[in-house]
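Recap from last week: sequence in, structure out.
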Amino acid sequence: MSGEPIKPRGDAVSTKAGGAVPQAGASTSEDIAAFVARARALSPHAPGAKGRLIFALDATLSRQPTWDMACALQADMFRETAALGSLDIRLVYYRGYNECRATGWISDSARLATLMSKIDCRGGDTQIGKVLSEARREAVASGVRAVVFVGDAMEENVDELCAKAGELGMLKVPVFLFQEGHDAVAEKAFREIARLTGGAWCRFDPGAAAQLRELLRAAAAYAAGGREALLKLAGSVSGAAMLIGQMK
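Predicted C-alpha cells:
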C-alpha cells in the first residue's frame, strides 16, 4: 500500500513532532474525580446516545497484511450497528518513530476506507500508551463507549500501561484487544489491560479475516447498543460470545 499519511487537521490529534498524541500528565485524586464526574455526566450509554468507538491499530511495518485486512473489514462494523443506531469511529494508529495520529469522528464506512487506504505501515516500536491516553482524553471530552485495539506486540512499560488502563476502567470504557499471533509478552499485557477496563482479550490467527470480522462486529455492537446488544449477538456470533464471556 502506498500514499501519504493522514495529515493533521483541526480535529486530528497531532501536537508534537512526528504527530504524537499528547501524553496525559500526572493525575491528582481531585483530577481523577473531576474527569470521572464529567464523563458520567456525558452519559454515552444513555438510550438514544450515539455510539462512539475508538478503532486503534498497530501500523508498524509487520502489520501491513493486517492493516489491509482491517481496511476490508471496517465497513462490517458500521453494518452491524445499522439496526441499533448510529456509530461514530475515530481511527487511531501508530507507526515509525514517535508517530501516533488520530482522525476525527467518522460516521461513514466509505470515508474511513478512503482514509485508511492512504496510510502505509512503517517500522517502529509500539505506542499503546498513547492510544490509551487518547482514549481517556476523548472519554472525558465527548464520551466513548469502547476501544478496539488490534496488534501483535507490546514493547512498553507494562505498569504504565496498566495505570492508564485503570483510568479508562474508572470511566467505564472497556478496551477490546485483538491479538494476532502468540507473543507471550503482548498477551500478558493485553489480558491485564482488558481486565482493568472491563473489556476482553481475544486472539486471532494471522490472515484470519473471518475471525477478525466477528470480533469487530461484536465490539461495534457493544459500542452502539451496549451489553444488551452484545448479548443478543452472542447467540449467533462466536466472537460476541467470546467477548461477553470475559466482560465484568
